[in-house]
Specification:
Blueprint (H helix, E strand, L loop, with lengths): L5 H19 L2 E2 L2 E11 L5 H18 L3 E10 L4 H13 L5 E2 L4 H14 L3 E3 L18 E6 L1 H14 L6 E4 L2 H5 L2 H5 L9 E4 L7 H9 L4 E5 L2 H13 L8 E4 L18 E6 L6 H16 L13 H21 L22 H10 L2 E3 L2 E5 L4 E4 L2 E7 L3 E9 L3 E4 L3 H12 L3 E6 L7 E2 L14 E2 L1 H13 L2 E6 L8 E2 L4 E2 L1 H7 L5 E2 L7 H4 L2 E3 L4 E3 L1 E6 L17 H24 L23 H12 L11 H32 L8 H6 L4 E3 L5 H8 L3 H12 L9 H10 L4 E6 H8 L5 E4 L6 E3 L2 E3 L5 H13 L2 H12 L20 H37 L3 H13 L20 H21 L3 H8 L10
Parallel strand pairs: 2-3, 2-4, 4-5, 5-6, 6-14, 7-8, 7-9, 9-10, 10-11, 18-21, 18-24, 28-29
Antiparallel strand pairs: 1-2, 11-15, 12-13, 13-14, 15-16, 16-17, 19-20, 22-23, 25-32, 26-31, 27-29, 27-30
Helix pairs in contact: 2-10, 2-11, 3-4, 11-12, 14-25, 17-18, 17-19, 18-19, 21-22, 27-28
Length: 940
């Protein structure tokens, strides 16, 4: 493309004169000539390109039209020379032009539009034209058509792009008041609660570095450039010098001619540079138009070169303006012949061109499609509907189309997520990330040195964070260098100084690309930095010392009832037994006839001796009952009340035994955060300045508000500097201090300190993420790598390795089964077995004594020696084949008789006794006689 120079204008002079003469020559080849005028400025370099576009667009129209031929008449003026502009417009009107194209200056264009409105000559412009302060006057705009996008709609397009990019704050750099007016909608999308928008104006000083350094020191990374195209490249070049073209800065260039700038030297910068374009530079129409321009200039023996990717917007608009005007002439000329008229600006009898208003109205309702896309006008002649290409500077192709915009659908991306991901991954190659972190087990720890070993760089560290970032680097193919944040803090915002500290500050100062540790994703931090998807989920829980194991007690089964109750029960047992015995002796109903068959028997018996009374009450309290029951009302009442009492006591004892013995083994005093909030004996605290502290500070839940008030007012302070300090305080606190911390760190501690445990569940739910500066282009790629590691199970393996295996993990992995937690061991109920054994021993001793007593009785009755009686009784007891025994009444006097006679006598005695027993059954006496065993001892 040749520059616009006086020499070049001289070269064009013969062509211009030829065209002027041609305009007055009538017609060529039978076509009716229709002159059209154009006014161009002499300053902008691309005005030459616009003139070429205008001329060869007319030439192409003339090639296809059969009935008329457009004849261009061109004039040149200065952008600020209003007087000369007025004179040139009047010259064109005097020459009979049917339309005036241009000029591109707001100052001179208004004068042209006013004259054209007076003469009713169509005025077609192709530049940005702001809406007047008082609003649009339909009368003044009646004859003007503007192909440049309407100011408000174009401003809305920029606002939609900013919203889509999620820019919460940004800085606007502009160079003229007109530029600031073009950003009206952008300024209006800013709400009172949003981050402030900074607006900076540059002057004619070519040194932009001080301004750029001020923006850099403010931490702003989003910049909108509303400056002339000839200033854009120099400003970005100086931004590169002050390191404002890094990967965390993003620029939006509002000029629709940004694609014409040669960004070759900035293509490899890491910043995101986005611009807007009104045309599709790969379309057939623009390639065809550029071909016409080059071939036409070649025929005129002039060299002109321009690629479709670098065509100026104004040139394309002139091409489309000629096309739509020619269409209007063609359509209206079919019904009524369009004839030019020579008009005079200073004539007293002012005449207007009769066809002008018809042509303008037709163009307003006609829809066309040109190089710049669909052309649709509103009632005021403004181009209210158009399409924009959103383009982004890439390393390989220069500006590349990534999305489109239109007033109906807004931003619509044309590239796939896969393309975006591939582009980001490609940019990561051969890049070294600075990864900030802090020391804290098990995320990052200093590696234990071996004798004589020297460690440097990343080899100094080990831990979950290091292996996590190492796995991500292998997936994405980048290098990294671990660095520790100087103050060792996570990152909290100081409302007094309005500054961040810790890892967040490190990222804001651009001293690190990533921050990896147990950094919790919070809303406050999210406003300052970006986070990847969480690589670990967690919540707040309570670290507390395990309950002290109580010594075993063989008689724990007695615990459900106090000693006083046991004494009262024993007293009641004896008292009721005595009362029952006394009442039964007094009650007539409990005295019975021992021989029911003998109705005239004068003797009655009472079975309720003290032994039977004790047995009845014992059977009742043991829940077994008794074979004999009282018959009198008083005794039955006493027995009934005792049974009711025994039932209540037995039920209570059984219901509380297991629970009481289980509780005996523990002395736990808290089980949840609610328990902590309700008491004041056990103190509790958190890490100072951490996310857990922020959770309690900002919580609206009443329980947590009470806990925060308790922590804040506690003296001495319950806050700690680290989790390790909190852990040590719990250990030394002897169950008088609890520590609230994140569950992941709590789990790590309880895997190594078996006397500590987690109390209750999680108080909230959150996640750890990898932090990076806002608007980092690598967030999507790193999040994708984290997701891939999660799906492959590598995150679970890493956690298992560093929580349960490395650095002493796995020492406290034995977790009691929930079904066994309430089971009682032999140490708790062994006393029951002791009592049973003692009872059996007593019963055995009593049985021996009863046996010996019976032996003595047999010896007396049978008149034998006790030794002989003992041997005979033992012999009978050990003979398991005998199932019955006779009752002894008398003893044989003959010790010399044979066994047979003795056996006969014994059988006779047995029969006599059985007959007697059948007739004289008495309860107590019969029981005593049945127990007697009689044997006849043979002297031989």
């Amino acid at each position: 493309m040749l520059p616009n120079s006086p020499a070049l204008r001289v070269r064009h002079l013969p062509l211009v004169l030829l065209l002027v003469l041609h305009a007055f020559s009538g017609s060529v080849d039978g076509k009716r000539e229709i002159p059209v005028g154009a006014i161009f400025h002499q300053v902008p370099d691309h005005s030459y390109e616009s003139e070429i576009a205008f001329r060869y667009a007319i030439e192409r129209v003339n090639m296809h039209e059969k009935h008329f031929e457009l004849v261009p008449i061109v004039r040149y003026v200065s952008p600020e020379d209003s007087f000369k502009t007025e004179r040139k417009v009047c010259e064109l009107a005097a020459e009979g032009v049917t339309a005036v194209f241009g000029p591109s200056s707001i100052l001179t264009s208004g004068i042209v539009g006013s004259i054209c409105k007076t003469l009713e000559i169509p005025h077609i412009i192709t530049h940005w034209d702001p809406e007047p302060l008082g609003g649009i006057d339909p009368e003044l705009q009646a004859m003007t058509i503007n192909l440049y996008p309407e100011a408000d709609v174009l401003s809305r397009a920029l606002a939609d792009l900013i919203v889509d990019y999620s820019w919460k704050s940004f800085t606007i750099i502009y160079d003229s008041d007109e530029g600031l007016m073009r950003l009206k909608d952008i300024l209006q999308i800013h709400g009172p609660s949003d981050a402030p928008i900074t607006v900076r104006q540059i002057d004619d000083d070519p040194d932009y570095r001080p301004l750029l350094k001020d923006i850099q020191s403010s931490g702003e990374s989003h910049i909108i450039l509303e400056i002339r195209p000839d200033r854009i490249l120099e400003l970005l070049r100086q931004a590169k010098e002050v390191k404002m073209l890094e990967e965390y800065q993003s620029y939006i260039i509002t000029s629709l001619d940004a694609h014409t700038i040669d960004f070759e030297e900035l293509r490899y910068s890491r910043s995101n540079i986005t611009a807007l374009r009104l045309m599709d530079t790969k379309s057939f129409d623009i390639k065809n138009a550029v071909h016409d321009w080059e071939q036409g200039e070649a025929r005129m023996k002039r060299q002109f070169r321009v690629s479709p990717e670098h065509v100026h917007t104004e040139s394309a608009l002139y091409n489309d303006a000629v096309k739509i005007y020619a269409t209007a002439i063609r359509e209206l000329d079919a019904t009524e012949e369009i004839t030019p008229s020579r008009l005079s600006c200073g004539s007293k009898n002012l005449r207007q061109w009769p066809f002008g208003l018809r042509i303008i109205n037709y163009m307003k309702v006609k829809t066309e499609h040109g190089i710049t896309g669909p052309i649709i006008f509103d009632d005021f002649g403004r181009r209210a509907h158009f399409h924009l290409d959103i383009i982004e500077l890439s390393k390989d192709e220069g500006f590349k189309k990534i999305a489109t915009w239109d007033p109906t659908h807004g931003v619509n991306y044309t590239r796939s997520q896969g393309e975006v991901y591939s582009q980001i991954v490609e940019s990561l190659q051969n890049k070294t990330f600075i990864v900030a972190s802090r020391i804290g087990a098990p995320f990052l720890m200093f590696k234990e040195k071996k004798d004589g070993e020297f460690l440097e760089g990343n080899n100094r560290f080990e831990g979950y964070s290091l292996e996590l970032i190492d796995g991500i680097s292998k997936i994405l193919g980048f290098q990294y260098r671990m660095e520790l944040v100087p103050d060792g803090k996570y990152g909290s915002y100081n409302k007094v100084t309005k500054k961040w500290d810790g890892l967040v500050k490190h990222l804001l100062d651009r001293k690190a690309d990533l921050a990896v540790c147990d950094l919790t994703i919070t809303y406050e931090r999210r406003t300052a930095v970006d986070f990847t998807m969480p690589f670990m989920t967690l919540g707040i829980s309570i670290l507390y010392a395990k309950p002290v194991q109580q010594p075993k007690d063989l008689f724990s089964f007695l615990s459900p009832l106090s000693l006083d109750v046991w004494i009262y029960m024993a007293t009641a047992y004896l008292g009721v037994s005595v009362l029952l015995f006394v009442l039964s002796r007094m009650a007539p109903a409990d005295w019975e006839n021992p021989h029911p068959c003998k109705q005239d028997n004068d003797e009655v018996e009472n079975i309720w001796d003290m032994f039977n009374a004790l047995w009845l009450t014992m059977g009742s309290i043991m829940g077994q009952g008794c074979d004999i029951l009282p018959k009198a009302i008083s005794t039955r009442l006493v027995a009934g009340m005792w049974w009711f009492f025994a039932l209540i006591m037995l039920s209570s004892y059984t219901a509380n035994l297991a629970a009481f013995l289980t509780m005996e083994r523990m002395d736990a005093t808290i089980e949840s955060a609610e328990d902590l909030a309700k008491q004041s004996k056990i103190k509790y605290g958190v890490v100072m300045g951490g996310s857990t502290m922020a959770f309690f500070q900002t919580s609206n839940f009443s329980t947590y508000q009470r806990m925060w008030a308790s922590m804040e007012s506690a003296r001495p302070s319950v806050f700690t500097k680290s989790n390790d300090e909190g852990r040590d305080r719990v250990i030394k606190g002897k169950r008088m201090y609890a520590f609230l911390m994140e569950s992941t760190s709590l789990e790590y501690i309880t895997e190594r300190y078996c006397d500590l445990t987690q109390i209750g569940g999680l108080l909230d739910s959150k996640g750890y993420g990898i932090a990076m500066p806002v608007n980092s282009p690598y967030r999507t790629a790193i999040s994708g790598a984290v997701l891939k590691m999660q799906e492959e199970g590598k995150l679970y393996q890493l956690k298992t390795r560093w929580w349960k295996e490395m650095r002493g993990g796995g020492q406290c992995t034995e977790v009691p089964n929930s079904s066994q937690e309430n089971e009682l061991g032999i140490g708790n109920v062994g006393g029951v077995f002791v009592v049973l054994a003692l009872g059996c021993l007593c019963a055995f001793i009593i049985g021996i004594l009863e046996f010996l007593w019976n032996v003595r009785k047999v010896a007396v009755d049978e008149k034998v020696t006790p030794w002989d009686a003992l041997k005979a009784e033992l012999k009978f007891a050990l003979n398991i084949s005998v199932t019955s025994k006779p009752v002894h009444n008398t003893l044989s006097e003959s010790t010399a008789s044979g066994k047979s006679s003795l056996r006969s006598k014994s059988e006779s005695r047995r029969g006599s006794e059985l007959a007697g027993r059948g007739n004289n059954v008495r309860t107590a006496a019969s029981l005593n006689n049945i127990d007697k065993i009689g044997f006849v001892f043979d002297k031989n």
